[in-house]
């Protein structure tokens, strides 16, 4: 039997189906492309990374890059860097990030931005609770390659400093995305997060894998909070605050 020619009805029907499918995919991308990219980079990819790290930690297996990076950071030590990174690590959580978290949530409520305030409160508060719970689940001991000048007594995985600073950065970036501040946030926030994370390695109180896990968990949690409060419900509360 001869193959269908270009004018054959079956061939024309197949080409029409392909065009229709392509049109549907293009429309889907135009409508939801940004959300799909956001979901992949802020949620799916970080979840995969955290799962890979957590699996190794749960099996009490180490990472080949942890000890060499710790020793390299320790080799940079000097009195000036010690003072600098003690300040960075202090600002990276208790005396910097935590007060900023509270200030951000209260400011958004004061500006009558209920949805944004709720998003920030859920993302920031939930991140802290998630970090504490995850530390207890994995119970990973701190590095002990040398005596740190800022010793810690809690468990190591994932890093609370890395997770807390990354959570705040992600929240600020998403809140700034539709404003004129988005590029400033994109440029300034990542280096600050990296600096806080490196301070924990430099001080010898976290493995690099703890830092990566903290960043991944922060991104995934903020992603979940954002999609629940901004994507799945166009207007979750009908109140005077939600303007």
From TrEMBL:
EC number(s) on file: 3.6.1.27
Pfam families with a match to the protein in the record: PAP2 (PF01569)
Phosphatidic acid phosphatase type 2/haloperoxidase domain residues: 117-226
Subcellular location: Cell membrane
Membrane-crossing residue ranges in chain numbering: 32-51, 91-110, 117-138, 158-177, 184-205, 211-229
Catalysed reactions, semicolon-separated: di-trans,octa-cis-undecaprenyl diphosphate + H2O = di-trans,octa-cis-undecaprenyl phosphate + phosphate + H(+)
Keywords for the protein's UniProt record, in alphabetical order: Cell membrane, Hydrolase, Membrane, Transmembrane, Transmembrane helix
Membrane topology type: Multi-pass membrane protein
Highest rank taxon of the organism: Bacteria
A GO molecular-function annotation: undecaprenyl-diphosphatase activity
GO (cellular component) term, any one: plasma membrane
InterPro entries documented for this protein: PAP2/HPO (IPR000326), PAP2/HPO_sf (IPR036938)
Family annotation (PANTHER family): DECAPRENYLPHOSPHORYL-5-PHOSPHORIBOSE PHOSPHATASE RV3807C-RELATED (PTHR14969:SF62), SPHINGOSINE-1-PHOSPHATE PHOSPHOHYDROLASE (PTHR14969)
Designated name of the protein: undecaprenyl-diphosphate phosphatase
Species annotation: Lysobacter spongiicola DSM 21749
């Amino acid at each position: 039997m001869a193959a269908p020619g270009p004018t054959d009805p079956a061939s024309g029907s197949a080409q029409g189906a392909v065009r229709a499918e392509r049109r549907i995919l293009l429309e889907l991308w135009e409508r939801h492309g940004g959300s799909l990219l956001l979901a992949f980079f802020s949620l799916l990819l970080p979840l995969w990374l955290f799962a890979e790290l957590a699996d190794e930690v749960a099996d009490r297996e180490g990472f080949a890059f942890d000890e060499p990076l710790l020793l390299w950071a320790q080799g940079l030590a000097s009195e000036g860097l010690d003072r600098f990174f003690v300040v960075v690590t202090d600002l990276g959580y208790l005396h910097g990030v935590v007060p900023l978290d509270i200030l951000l949530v209260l400011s958004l409520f004061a500006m009558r931005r209920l949805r944004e305030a709720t998003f920030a409160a859920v993302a920031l508060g939930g991140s802290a609770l998630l970090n504490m719970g995850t530390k207890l689940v994995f119970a990973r001991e701190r590095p002990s390659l040398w005596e740190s000048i800022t010793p810690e007594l809690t468990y190591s995985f994932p890093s609370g400093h890395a997770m807390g600073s990354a959570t705040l950065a992600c929240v600020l970036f998403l809140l700034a995305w539709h404003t004129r501040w988005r590029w400033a946030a994109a440029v300034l926030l990542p280096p600050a997060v990296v600096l806080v994370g490196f301070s924990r390695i430099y001080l010898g109180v976290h493995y690099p894998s703890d830092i990566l896990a903290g960043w991944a968990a922060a991104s995934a949690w903020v992603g979940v909070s954002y999609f629940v409060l901004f994507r799945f419900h166009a207007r979750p509360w009908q109140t005077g605050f939600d303007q």
